[in-house]
Amino acid sequence: MALLPLHLLGTPFYNSYLRLCGAKIGCHTHIYTTLIDAPWLLQVEESSFIGEEVVLSSLSYQDQTYQLHRIRIGSHCSINTHSVLYEDVIIEDHVYVKPMSAITGVITTSKDKTFIKDRSLSLIHTMYQSTCLLCLLFIHGIILLLVYGVYSCCSTLLLPLPISLALAWLIWTLTSFCIALALLKFVVGRATSGYYSINSYGYLHKLWLRQLIITSFHQALDFLPSYDVISSYILRWLGAHIEGNVKFAEFQQILRFPSNLLNIEGNVTTFGGANLASFKMTKQGLCFLDEIHLGSNANLGNWCTIMPATRLPPKVIVGSLTLITQKTFSAEGNCVLLGIPARDMPFVMPDDTSIAHTFEQRILKLAPITIDDSTVLMSNTLILPGATLQGQNRILPWTLVMKNDQLPPNTNWSGVPAKQVI
Given CA atoms 225, 228, 230, 231 in this order, what sign does their dihedral have? Predict the structure, then answer.
């Protein structure tokens, strides 16, 4: 997806862009995803909300045939973060979809539906978004002029072209990196726990602007290596409470959550794709923002999602593709949480917390994965090392195939962990 739509997420300009691509988008709709494979088959009615990283998949493959399907989302709906809508989807009005849901078919309005307040952006709010976009464009222009000046100086000094380009790139990266952090610290500032209307200034300034800055400078922020200790120092400077020996696989994913609401104890490790959700959209149409607390020696697996108001006890391993919410309860810790939503697994980790055991959890282990003919892996599926898919398997969205699983041929699988479905 081009960078331009990424910068326009959550604005009326992005809705206009999707309309140009053939989508039917109603008024006052807020869309925060670019994962749309066939926008001309998408219809979203007025005042609906589609969260971050939601997959709108109209394309399917079965029996060696590709098929295209329409996706229709009614008015005043809320589709929470990391959900997947696939194949023929019809969602009626006033439907609430929980985070990390896999949706297909017809979803009807529930009897206890809640009428959502007005989600329309006023002219002042639209002008605020436009001003932020223009200011960032101006900042990037100034940075490019600075880099061009450095390159010109290198050319004047007759430095070799590779050295000139490398030096110019380094200046651009470091300057952009520092400006992004300064904007988050001094412009966005500290966030306050509570409920925000999606068309309020508080939401736009504390949440929307934060995501815009990180998206705009994401290439410079990627300069920081995985598991680098500097990440912890930067987050502390931004207001987070982080103890020692904390390792982050993806710094940007952690940075997207308001830093002053982040509390991480010692020896915590996050792996690739681990996501701290910036907010949760409630059934009343409000954005809920609260602190996230991670206990000591916790491990966050690949592509798990931690929702606001979560408090993880010590020595907890969060499995891959797992959803942790405020309702997730594990009082004693020393357990493994897995599933959507998370639940305790019937085994615990050893009480021994020696250095060798902790270090072993941070080692990358490799094992072969066998996938035979005519197998379909749908959106947001994960196959762990050692698994064997024996052919003509269909793995539905948000499915975790466990280590060393043997999937018989001609079977369908769904869930975390994977279970056979008929």
Answer: positive
Q: Are 278 and 289 in contact (CB under 8 A)?
A: yes
pLDDT in tens, 33-64: 999 999 999 999 999 999 999 999 999 887 77
Superfamily of domain 225-361: Hexapeptide repeat proteins (2.160.10.10)
Three-state DSSP state, 211: helix
User: How far is 317 from 298, CA to CA, in rounded Å?
Assistant: 6
- For strand 335-338 and strand 343-344, is the pairing parallel, antiparallel, or unpaired? antiparallel
Q: Is the peptide bond before 346 cis (omega within 30 degrees of 0)?
A: no
Q: How many residues does the chain have?
A: 422
Contacts of 233 (CB under 8 A, 6+ apart): none
* Nearest-5° Cα angle at 280, 276 to 285: 160
Strands 406-407 and 388-389: parallel
Q: Are residues 193 and 292 in contact, defined by beta-carbon separation less than 8 angstroms?
A: no
pLDDT greater than 70 at residue 118: yes
Cα–Cα distance for residue pair 360/386, rounded to 1 Å: 18
pLDDT tens figures, 166-215: 999 999 999 999 999 999 999 999 999 999 999 999 999 999 999 999 99
Q: Are 202 and 196 in contact (CB under 8 A)?
A: yes
Check whether 1 has a pLDDT greater than 50.
Answer: no
Q: What is the reported pTM?
A: 0.90
Nearest to 104 by CA among 63, 55, 50: 55
> Residue ranges of the domains in the chain?
3-107, 123-195, 225-361, 370-421
Strands (E), 8-143: 24-25, 30-31, 42-44, 49-50, 55-57, 59-62, 65-68, 71-73, 78-79, 84-91, 96-97, 102-107
CA–CA distance from 363 to each of 205, 269, 329, 356, 385 (Å)?
39, 11, 28, 11, 14
What is the distance between the alpha carbons of residues 188 and 283, in angstroms, rounded to a whole number?
27
Residues 6+ apart with CB under 8 A from 324: 304, 305, 306, 307, 310, 312, 318, 337, 341, 342
